[in-house]
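ESCALATION

Customer reports they have been waiting on this structure for their group meeting. Please prioritize. Original submission:
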Amino acid sequence: MVVHCHAIDLQMLLTTSFQQHFRYLQNFGAIGVDVFFVISGFIISYISRAEHGVASAKDFMLRRWVRVAPAYYIASIILFILFFLSQHFAFHAPQVIKTFTILPLFDHGPRYWSPVLVIGWTLSFEFLFYILSAILIAFSIARKDAALLLVLTILYLFGVFVPVSNAQFNFVTSPMILEFGFGVIIAMVYKQRRLVPPVISVTLVVTGLAMFARLIWQGYGGVSELFFILESKSVEQRIILWGLPAAALCAGAIWLEKAKPHLIGSNRFLLLLGDASYSIYLAHPLCYAMLGSLVKRVPFLAQLQGDVLILIFMTLATASGILFHFYIEKPLISKLNGMLLHKKVPAQQAAP
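Update from on-call: job pushed to the front of the queue and completed.
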């Protein structure tokens, strides 16, 4: 969905398409981030349920860092090089700093900056969630999931009732963290009752998709715009409009997979896309940056129908992400796991 959203952005630089003018489809793919956060809340809550103590917390954070950060740094460096070679090397210092710190440790003013690889803003929230989870692991909290929900809620309420114009405060109290909480709730129910009647699972999936369709048809205001999140504006609206349908879709899909594993488990291509999803997320901006320079030098591309261009862009971006997965992400994770954790962990385990 994110790849599709950005493919339309790239296509619009060249020509027009049916998709860019179809109701509110143009920016809707950004809701993939909200799905991403809900999935993360579910996975992290589920895999950390048996972890307790300081040693486990350190191991947990190291595994999360290995899983997320190195591939992100490599993608960011590649983007640096691409922009430098294209002579469009114009970044603000806070963006460069944010690229390497991931968290907005040194941002000034009321807003926090996006990194050079703009989609990396999502990883800031990921690591915030990891840190909160690690703290609860370190203190051996018995009901970590319930405690995590409480912490997320308290942080959000601080942001509502304590008016502080500070980038770090606005970040840690952003309503976006509540989407991880949706995933935690799903994990709590999943742990108590792993199987639910398929009719409920299907109903949740259909409900989520119906809410998606309604948003595409009727609109969603400006909640798709990144600067609203960075400036902590309209975020509650995004949680309601986008977070809730994302949670319904994820909950239904999780239980449906448990009840009917053959529906997806036997499809090798879908499994590949799932394993490579993080690499596709990281690599597609690099692919689009190169395509953006290429299309200006290949005039006939601009003559293609806009919707055909979108399909071409998405295919190339997905292929580049799969290559990034096999030749960069997997070997890198395997090597670092062996060096830092002294054990082999499948590269696709617990995608962020």
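Sent to customer with the following note: The CA atoms of residues 39 and 124 lie 16 Å apart.
Escalation resolved.
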